[in-house]
Amino acid sequence: MNENTLSIFALGGMNEIGKNMYVVQYSDDIIVIDCGGKFPDETLLGIDLIIPDLTYLEENKDKIRALIVTHGHEDHIGGIPYFFKKLNVPVYATRFTLGLIELKLEEHRLLRDTELVTITPDSELQFGTIGVSFFRVSHSIPDCLGIVFHTPEGNVVHTGDFKFDLTPADNQKVDINKMARIGDKGVLALISESTNAERPGLTPSEQMVASHMNEAFMKATGKIFVSTFASNVSRVQQVVDAAKNTNRKLALLGRSMVNVVSVAMERGYLTIPEGMLMDAKEVEQLPPEKVAILCTGSQGEPNAALARLATGNYRDVNIYADDTIIFAASPIPGNEKDVSRVIDNLFKLGAHVIYGSGSSTGMHVSGHGYQEDLKLMLTFMKPKYFIPIHGEYRMLHHHRLLAESVGIEPGNTFIMKNGEVMDIQHGVARQTRTIPAGDTFVDGVGVGDIGSVVLRDRKQLSEDGMLITVITLSRSEQKIISGPDTITRGFVFAKESDALLREVNKLVKQAVNDLENEERRQWNILKQSIKKSVGQFLFSKTKRKPMIIPIIIEI
Amino acid sequence: MNENTLSIFALGGMNEIGKNMYVVQYSDDIIVIDCGGKFPDETLLGIDLIIPDLTYLEENKDKIRALIVTHGHEDHIGGIPYFFKKLNVPVYATRFTLGLIELKLEEHRLLRDTELVTITPDSELQFGTIGVSFFRVSHSIPDCLGIVFHTPEGNVVHTGDFKFDLTPADNQKVDINKMARIGDKGVLALISESTNAERPGLTPSEQMVASHMNEAFMKATGKIFVSTFASNVSRVQQVVDAAKNTNRKLALLGRSMVNVVSVAMERGYLTIPEGMLMDAKEVEQLPPEKVAILCTGSQGEPNAALARLATGNYRDVNIYADDTIIFAASPIPGNEKDVSRVIDNLFKLGAHVIYGSGSSTGMHVSGHGYQEDLKLMLTFMKPKYFIPIHGEYRMLHHHRLLAESVGIEPGNTFIMKNGEVMDIQHGVARQTRTIPAGDTFVDGVGVGDIGSVVLRDRKQLSEDGMLITVITLSRSEQKIISGPDTITRGFVFAKESDALLREVNKLVKQAVNDLENEERRQWNILKQSIKKSVGQFLFSKTKRKPMIIPIIIEI
């Protein structure tokens, strides 16, 4: 099937925001793009992280030539440590992206075993039958790449995450002339991100933030706290600049803020004046109008610096009535309630809080292109085939409409699911086969050992708790010699449950006695009978359905 | 304390959206305003509903003269059935509000036992020392009231939920002249809702929806589905009118849509032309351009009509590629993800979907006044004291700023917590005491039998599951005669756990053997020792902390 065929597919990133992983394959040469993680929603009880299903890659590991990483956001690099536990492939990424990958590998103690190769937008690579070149795009993290795959079937372009920011704060300009040249040479297929395909207009420039940030710093009379993603180095630089302009020293709170800022400084992506950085311990010794603080927690994460500051639980630093807190990031869908809780707590401390969704406060702009950005990319590349990626279904759908609006033939846009494969042969694309793809759950150190049964049990336990009843039967006569002993967890208060549990014990005894001796020896029948009568009784009394676990001991 | 004192406090609705319940008391006369429910967030595992703590009212039940209900929304009437299980007090409300209360009491089979009194904006009542009169306000449900309490200390005004809609779709005009007269007579304290205190401007009028609704109906070539809150009768009427204008018959899907529409029709709040309503079964027999459907599920609720339609799981009715679905309601914070899931599924069916937050699509306007509405109310009433209610802290805070901007003295706004009491004597307000107030959890038929221990257990069970290990000891020698038998639920796959559980059994045996006979008889020591060694072992192997339940049987 793969001989002389160009195949394109996603192992993550279709119909979802998160765990991006895309594959371009020609004959026996596989190139993997990104390996992201995704945070579980509240239905995935106890799950820490979701990563792509790596089955196809494991089965074809001898063919994988490279993992190329477009940029360093969690939804593009979060799965890399788990990837390396199973696969050993060289990683290609820009200097800043590699810095973040190294941080992550170090945490998992995998750093020594991996081959990391630094590339630039000018790099040109050859992997078997596939040549690879790059172009710079702007986004909300430094050093982002789009990728061109030069295959015998034609050129395939992957945009990475992008917006067209012609005045980026870090001066890493999106290379539109190179994009035009790539388009002029002919693009067989364009793979483009869809996050903001529902939003009309052109994304505002990152530079917009500077004037608002400076103004807020100028007005503030107390300490200033700014919370943003540490990886948004341009945003961090603008905070540094505003602090410098107003003669404030700067403290960094939160582990990822400290780590990422140090990577950015070491590698020359961030300039902080000598002597400006201070330790958290120094904060309370300076006059408040001399203090600026950069902290994690813009998404309301309960354990991050800002949430702890807001409840007075941060060692060394307190928020007082005249302080100003700036949210320089928009809540990601699903985080709104956590963010609101933190804002409420800050107002309770009497602080000034600058917050609001989207770019309404001027303290945040999106890193993902709006509709006009997406149309620009489609217009530069003029692809024959178009694959919208990186979005929930409605975003992919709107991206298809945008493609049609700039002249892509309606039948030539392929909205695919994770694991659905586009095969191109002799210039003709077909989508006929699928490979395994889905969510792999990470819980603690376990990867893939949690499935639907475990989650179903957790759900039942979480809603109504459980009841355990233990009886001991004599092996010879199958009579009860001890028990029933019944305990509950997560079901009802102990004091409320005494009478209830006495009834349960009666029912258990009765269930045992009601069975003939022969049946009693078949524990499954006995257990079913106990579950049924106790379950019905509890539901009639409480309208709850705890998990009922009969345990039978035979002596 | 209460003799000749006017007291005002909330049992719910402060620092939260939901479970509104306010109390005005003079000497021995208590009047209760509203009795709402609140839906639990995802941290309250298994809880069905939250209602106010009724302790104070139960302890003072002989003093309660009336429960007055401002309007029929869940966050104002949802707790009423639970109120009536403990307290028997006459209920005063307008005709439409009483209709919804009756529906609710009927469900709980409490209808016969309660005294329901119909009032109008012109009613005047006297409860001991307190006279009560009313004024009409506009909101997003018919027949809403503001209340004036005439007490020996002075007049207290409670706004209910309101906006100033001068062109309401139902012609129930907000009575601004009466409000002005009330203000002119002098208001000692104003209790006013704060939901939209963060939003600048004046709320748009409900009539804005009509033209957009008609336009969408005119353009649609297939079936039209509109999802909204059934209680928003004006919105429902506008859908009926648009269907009439385009010669479509109308089907109602979803239990609450059917129930509330029938209450609204019976009581004359909704006019549906003869022969327009049809059964769901008729839908597929008509040409699609002759069909309009009103359905529940605008918040993405997984079991409501729209979510089931979107996945093809609704008996009798299907959505096809050319159909149009209109979300005529904005997602309530916390529901965004559920709503997005439904929208995605609708797009997958190929349907046209009209959606968007706030009033961006023209298909929804808020029922709660924005900043200018709130300032109007404050200006009419010119109260001496101001108590912002019905909002999270940041909303109450912004409402206070609005009050100051129209001339309320800064020290005279009281931002209170649930249970904090404002006492007014000789015209002077003080906030010195508190009464019991908090969340009462409803889980199944249990009210108040779930506390923090049960919830903590549910949380642990939900995240990492549990492990039960049973050993039987001989009473005489305290030797193991059976077990350990170990099972898990919600922890790991069975197939992954065999080796793990063998190790656990070894540890349990060892824990028993390591103890001296004397200690072994103290089961607490034995259990702690098992929990500790098994817990440490499991964490080291899996980084998970399941609940560990050792069960010891002695024979």
Automatic annotation (TrEMBL), chains A, B:
Task: State the function annotated in the UniProt record.
Answer: An RNase that has 5'-3' exonuclease and possibly endonuclease activity. Involved in maturation of rRNA and in some organisms also mRNA maturation and/or decay.
Q: Which cofactor does it need?
A: Ca(2+); Zn(2+)
Binding positions for substrate?
Answer: A230, S231, N232, H364, V365, S366, G367, H368
Gene name of the encoded protein: rnj
Query: Where, in this chain's numbering, is Ca(2+) bound?
Result: G46, D48, D443
**Oligomer status and interactors:** Homodimer, may be a subunit of the RNA degradosome.
* Enzyme Commission no: 3.1.-.-
What are the positions of the active site?
A: E193 (proton donor), H368 (proton acceptor)
Q: Where does Zn(2+) 2 bind?
A: H390
SUPFAM superfamilies according to UniProt: Metallo-hydrolase/oxidoreductase (SSF56281)
What would be one Gene Ontology cellular-component term for the protein? Answer: cytoplasm
User: Where does this protein come from, organism-wise?
Assistant: Sutcliffiella cohnii
Q: What is this protein called?
A: Ribonuclease J
Q: What region holds the Metallo-beta-lactamase domain?
A: 18-212
UniProt-annotated binding residues for Zn(2+) 1: H71, H73, D75, H76, H139, D161
Identify the PROSITE patterns for this entry: UPF0036
Q: Which family does it belong to?
A: Belongs to the metallo-beta-lactamase superfamily. RNA-metabolizing metallo-beta-lactamase-like family. Bacterial RNase J subfamily.
Q: Any note on cofactor binding? A: Binds 1 Ca(2+) cation per subunit. Seen in 1 crystal structure, it is not clear if it is physiologically important. Binds 2 Zn(2+) ions per subunit. It is not clear if Zn(2+) or Mg(2+) is physiologically important.
Domain of life according to the entry: Bacteria
List, alphabetically, the CDD domains matched.
RNaseJ_MBL-fold
Give the primary localization class: cytoplasm
The cellular location(s) given in this protein's UniProt record come to: Cytoplasm
Keyword annotations of the record: Calcium, Cytoplasm, Endonuclease, Exonuclease, Hydrolase, Metal-binding, Nuclease, RNA-binding, rRNA processing, Zinc
An example Gene Ontology biological process: mRNA processing
Molecular function in Gene Ontology: 5'-3' RNA exonuclease activity; RNA binding; RNA endonuclease activity; zinc ion binding
Q: Which residues form a coiled coil?
A: none
